[in-house]
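Handout for the seminar on molecular recognition.
Each group receives one record of this type.
Step one: identify the two inputs.
Step two: read the structure output and locate the region that could contact cytidine-5'-triphosphate.
Step three: write two sentences on what you found, then compare them with the reference statements printed after the record.
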Amino acid sequence: MQNVFAGKKVVIGVTGSIAAFKVAGWVSDLAKEEAQVSVVMTRSATEFVSPLTFAALSGNDVHTDMFSAAKENTMAHISLGRDADVVLIAPATANTIAKLAAGMADDLLTTTVLATRARVLVCPAMNSRMYSHSATERNIARLRELGYTVVDPDCGMMACKEHGDGRLPEWDEVKEYVAQALTPQVLQGQRIMITAGPTREPLDPARFLSNRSSGKMGYALAKSAFRRGGEVTLISGPSSLPAPAGVTMQRVQTALEMYDAVLEHAGQCSVIIKAAAVADYRPEKKFAHKVKKDQIDTRLHLERNPDILLELGKRKKEGQILVGFAAESQNLREEGMKKLQRKNLDFIAVNDISGDSTGFEVESNQVLLLGRSGAELLPYTSKMHTADLIWDRIVAQLAAL
Ligand code: CTP
């Protein structure tokens, strides 16, 4: 996958919350990703973590106040904001949020925010009572009106031994928002639906028919679309993967549930990618109670599931892009082409499942991407990079519409 962080100027504003120590790991990770990280700390943040920690991890001086910064750089309060590619405020206290909502500029961090035209991301982190106070709610709503991206805090046990909303989210999630802020928003305003994972077709409460799909390819496609600014709904069969940041998740079990969920959203989507490995058949009868082994019929009676993609192809609207996946072990191009035409698709990504380094469960993939105008063998690479390459082709098609 392209490294969106390399060489980018990331300003991290750290304010006075106990969660400040967590951001040390974030700075370290961004530095490993080759971002140029500048940390600005409020005075109270320095009570929690020493500026030296952030200086060592970022490899850059830490800015703590407007006037000492001015000694080395007379315009630090302007240049930090002006040169930034993204400003991330984490953890953001109720106090800093209130100041930002009011447009105040009484310290280096708030001044930097006013001076920047880069995307500003705010990660509130505070006691849940402070977070749910109507003053804080109003201030956060105001930040959104001002165009700042507010990443909702997590719910859980906090340092003050209270349980509730207000925990700083995990870096894996926030990192996706930073990546989004650094990526051209070519999918802005596009509603996208992606399906992923297997389906499970129950036989009784203990047993089901399913397949080897892990969901990795579909989740990577969802992540890549979110980074490009798409409004993404991910309809996922059972998968152990965490919900990708910024994506609306709908979890389903069976092919029939996936059918209902997909058709409910399909009419509003400009791009639909069906990466799910939908079970083609389900047991004819589902038993309400676990069937005892000596009562099981050794022949399983199955019935056909609806082909969701075929149905989407029939209902396809003018300008809607429909992408399917196919798992094949031979004659990839011919089999893929047949499916592309039969299901009225714009693209089909054909996975070669004959080897064990591509296709199911593994991190890597190589797909033959068939479109109406020809075939392209994408390189053998990570599923995340494959997702990016598929999106590049879809974005080009959207632009040509
Ligand atoms: N698909 C679907 N609904 C189904 C079955 C498949 O939407 N009931 C979609 C998958 O999400 C995928 C594509 O169709 O995008 C796979 O095509 P399909 O023809 O079903 O592939 P196979 O099941 O592999 O077909 P076959 O066994 O006939 O090769």
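Reference statements: The radius of gyration is 25 Å. The first helix runs from residue 22 to 32.
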